[in-house]
Design a protein that fits this description.
6 helices; alpha/beta; five-stranded parallel beta sheet; about 20% strand
């Protein structure tokens, strides 16, 4: 007695899907990536190392724009954003002196920056750091938390940049990692 092949429509569909899946898998496994010049690959790898991005904030629009830029840089490698507000304590006071108004302003700025980061679903830490000047405070936090990159938003006019112009100058000369300055146009 001879057994005949009886095919059902369901069996044909399953076989076709299986064959297509195997074909796609083989294509994916054996395709060659496109050629990338060594210089391009090296530049791409250097940005992949930016896993901890520190962003100083003051709650100003240009500082918030710096937070947004840092988030966009961190998205591809799912880096962590470290938001820092450096509370500048006058030299006439001890570093631990209570400064309720300044602390309230710092908390509001950090919360706004945290909300920006949360829109990108990235890990975030907020840090309130006390120092005599913002530049040295940012450097201390970057060193302590091993930041790979600092993103600093700077205002468009010299008189609105005030504090950040000093901070930018300090970071330019003494930062322990790469620094990206984001200056708004006039």
């Amino acid at each position: 007695m001879m057994l005949g092949l009886i095919s059902s429509p369901t069996g044909v569909v399953i076989a076709a899907v299986f064959a297509a899946a195997i074909g796609l898998l083989m294509w994916w496994m054996f395709r060659l990536p496109r050629h990338v010049p060594e210089e391009v690959a090296k530049a791409r790898r250097s940005l992949d190392a930016a896993r901890a991005i520190l962003v100083p904030t003051t709650g100003t629009p240009h500082a918030e724009r710096g937070v947004e830029l840092a988030c966009r840089l961190a998205q591809e490698q799912v880096g962590e954003i470290l938001l820092v507000y450096v509370l500048e304590v006058p030299r006439t006071l001890p570093l631990g002196a209570p400064m309720p108004e300044a602390e309230k302003e710092a908390a509001a700025a950090l919360e706004t920056a945290r909300e920006i980061v949360s829109l990108h679903n990235l890990p975030v830490r907020t840090i309130l750091y006390r120092a005599r000047d913002a530049g040295n405070g940012v450097i201390a936090v970057a060193t302590e938390h091993r930041a790979d990159l600092i993103v600093l938003g700077i205002g468009p006019h010299r008189h609105t940049a005030g504090l950040w112009s000093r901070t930018a100058e300090t970071l330019l000369h003494r930062a322990p990692c790469e620094v990206v300055f984001d200056k708004l146009p006039d």
